[in-house]
Design goal:
Layout lengths: L1 H38 L2 E2 L10 E2 H9 L4 H30 L3 H16 L4 H5 L2 H14 L2 H7 L11 H15 L13 H25 L3 H30 L3 H30 L4 H32 L5 H31 L5 H14 L3 H15 L4 E8 L2 E9 L6 E7 L2 E8 L16 H62 L6 H28 L2 H6 L1 H10 L7 E6 L8 H22 L3 E8 L3 E8 L12 H12 L3 E6 L5 E8 L6
Parallel strand pairs: 1-2, 7-8
Antiparallel strand pairs: 3-4, 3-6, 5-6, 8-9, 9-11, 10-11
């Protein structure tokens, strides 16, 4: 049922788009074909209902500058054409590239309808009764642009209270088209009130964009809103200027200039909206869209510049029909076309690509971040984050080849369906893969800068190779530590159960000989001496066994072994206490020894050097790690201290099992030692 409703809604939306598009073209063509003759007419100040028409005073002023009404009418018709084409072309491009996305579709309908309403003369349509009904539909849809501004670009009201002024504007539109003459119809209000509300709503729309800009989390979103806010501000200022001069001025030349400024300001708005919407909704299509926009924008700009040059030269030479003027204008446009195109291409690239317009900024930024990142665990996270943010990718990840298999080492963002893989090779050997959330990395940079991707991939490859070597060294070290602990376990068992037991048996047999009555006194003394030597050997073996691996770890476990260690200080001047979370699973042998020896060395140092009365040992679990804290209330460390053998030994024991070690003075007094050891090691 849901799929059927979605299908019907999809068909209805596309049907609405085609309806609006067809009537927009029809209305514009009808208005444009009659506009030239319409604008030639002069009206009195009291009867001018069309802002495009000149009053008698304005026409006289224009004629005094040597400009005819035909020149004014021709310029205005061309400006209307450029304005219509700008909105219509962006609307159609949005439909073509984002027809499967509802937001793109609705924005396309709004741009086409709004652009049409702003580029036709209402009195011309009013003279054709058969067009009035469809013009009402077109006008209502077009006037929804203000409601759209409050939602741009993510479809939400920010801040939320802007919902209420947006509704006020929507109610006003409903009053104009569905309840004309009622109290909610703004056309019935006094002009000052109507203008004030209109300005207030547009000012709040700008405030909405400023609020979004301040709270935007990415440079990409800030850049999009900055372009849109500039174009919207230019549109509002041009409207204000046009209204001001239409009310208080009677200068035809100034009015023509204000029309030119007004439509120039309108020219930027659809392009900024189109790029931002498609960037927000259809990331992989925005690049192709932007290239098409450059062609469209340059074409319209050239048309506008040509009209401006022809008009200016005609004004200066006091002739609007001279073929020389047209040829001269064509030559000037041809000269400045390529620099204009280059500048516009750069501006659009900056809007679409951001920092990617200058890819060496990415390489420089990535290099700086890598220089600041010193740990193996964070270097690749820095790489994928920098690559994703710089190229505006929703997802990036790096897989590294280790022992014949690829392992995911770093990820940024959430995985997307549209993605591509790029092998990272060194000396012909594939050592890793860079995965990105784009169909191709070539789409993420301007076409003339794609060759610099090689440098970017080389930087990533070197970072991956560094991590790969460090990981191999780490694995080798961990294996050596594991083998060492297992070998120590075996030696301790063999010495304790084998040699130790044999020596103890020999000692018992010697005791039997010593206490026999018929043994010569000299021989007895000799046996007693040998027995003492044997006891010393047994004690040495026991000490050797303890140094290899404390027996309490295997017999009692880590927590009980630490508790026994702390109890050895009962009755001394230093009171040692233990707080430990229960660990209900066996730890790796190397982890147990490292934890035990670090606590042992720390407590020993506290007893010898701290001059404190208490020492607290805390053992707990935290994020797949064993956290050890030893805090005393002694004198702490001197500022000019040098690490002794004990501190060096503790740090080394933590590092060799891939742990972390920290030592610092307490907040008030004393010393705090922290060790963070993993719960398991490679090969567990």
């Amino acid at each position: 049922m849901k799929k059927r409703l979605d299908g019907l809604f999809y068909l209805f939306s596309h049907g609405a788009w085609w309806y609006i598009t067809v009537i927009s073209v029809a209305l514009f063509i009808y208005s444009e074909t009659k506009a030239y003759d319409k604008f030639l007419k002069v009206c009195s100040s009291e009867e001018c209902q069309d802002l495009f028409l000149l009053s008698a005073e304005e026409a006289q002023t224009l004629l005094s500058y040597g400009m005819s009404m035909s020149f004014y009418s021709g310029i205005l018709v061309v400006l209307l054409l450029i304005q219509f084409l700008s909105f219509f072309s962006v609307g159609c491009l949005l439909y073509v590239y984002g027809m499967r996305d509802r937001i793109c579709l609705y924005t396309s309908i709004l741009l086409i309808a709004t652009g049409t309403v702003m580029s036709i003369s209402t009195p011309i349509i009013s003279e054709a009764p058969h067009l009035e009904s469809i013009f009402q539909v077109e006008s209502f849809v077009g006037d929804l642009y203000l409601f759209f501004f409050f939602l741009f670009p993510d479809g939400r009201f920010r801040p939320k209270w802007l919902l209420y002024p947006a509704i006020i504007g929507l109610v006003g539109n409903i009053g104009i088209y569905f309840l004309p003459g009622s109290f909610i119809d703004p056309t019935t209000w006094p002009i000052p009130i109507r203008s004030g509300i209109w300005l207030s709503l547009h000012a709040l729309a700008i405030y909405s964009q400023i609020h979004r800009y301040r709270h935007a989390q990415t440079k990409q979103l800030k850049r999009q809103m900055r372009w849109f806010a500039v174009s919207l501000s230019g549109f509002i200022l041009s409207v204000l200027s046009l209204l001001t001069f239409s009310i208080f001025g009677e200068n035809g030349l100034l009015k023509l200039f204000m029309w030119f400024v007004y439509y120039l300001a309108l020219l930027f708005m659809p392009f900024s909206i189109g790029i931002a919407i498609l960037e927000q909704r259809q990331r992989h299509l925005s690049v192709v869209f932007s290239r098409t926009i450059v062609y469209s924008f340059v074409t319209l700009m050239v048309m506008g510049v040509y009209v401006l040059i022809v008009g200016s030269l005609g004004f200066l030479l006091n002739d609007q029909n001279n073929i020389f003027i047209s040829l001269l204008a064509t030559g000037i446009v041809a000269i400045f076309f390529q620099p204009l195109r280059t500048k516009i291409q750069h501006s659009v690239n900056t809007l679409v690509y951001g920092d990617r317009e200058d890819p060496y900024k990415i390489l420089s930024s990535l290099t700086q971040r890598l220089e600041l990142t010193m740990t193996n665990s964070s270097v690749l996270l820095t790489v994928v984050e920098e690559v994703a943010k710089a190229l505006k990718l929703p997802f990036a990840a790096i897989d590294i080849e280790m022992e014949g298999q690829f392992e995911r080492y770093a990820t940024f963002g959430e995985e997307v369906q549209v993605r591509s893989e790029f092998p990272l090779t060194l000396n012909g050997e594939r050592i890793g893969i860079l995965l990105v959330g784009a169909r191709s990395l070539q789409e993420t940079m301007p076409p003339d800068k794609v060759y610099l991707l090689t440098d970017l991939l080389r930087q990533v490859t070197m970072a991956v190779q560094t991590v790969r070597i460090l990981s191999e060294l780490k694995r080798s070290r961990i294996k050596l530590v594991s083998f060492r602990e297992e070998e120590r376990r075996r030696l301790r068992r063999d010495l304790h159960d084998g040699l130790g037991a044999s020596l103890a048996s020999i000692s018992l047999k010697m005791d039997t000989l010593v206490y026999q009555n018929d043994v010569d006194i000299v021989l007895k003394n000799r046996l007693i001496e040998l027995q003492e030597d044997l006891r010393s050997a047994i004690a040495g073996i026991r000490q050797l066994v303890y140094n290899l691996r404390p027996p309490a770890l295997d017999e009692l476990g880590l927590i009980f072994a630490l508790d026994e260690l702390c109890r050895q200080y009962d009755g001394s001047s230093l009171k040692v206490s233990l707080e430990a979370s229960e660990i209900d699973f066996p730890l790796h042998a190397a982890i147990e020894v490292a934890a035990y020896r670090i606590v042992q060395e720390a407590v020993t140092n506290a007893g010898k050097h701290s001059k404190g009365s208490t020492c607290k040992v805390t053992l707990g679990l935290e994020d797949s790690h064993v956290m050890i804290r030893i805090i005393d209330d002694g004198v702490g460390l001197p500022t000019n201290r040098k690490n002794g053998i004990g501190l060096h030994s503790m740090r080394e024991r933590a590092v060799e099992v891939d742990g972390q070690f920290l030592i610092k003075n307490g907040h008030d007094k004393g010393l705090m030692i922290e060790a963070r050891l993993p719960l398991w090691m490679e090969g567990d």
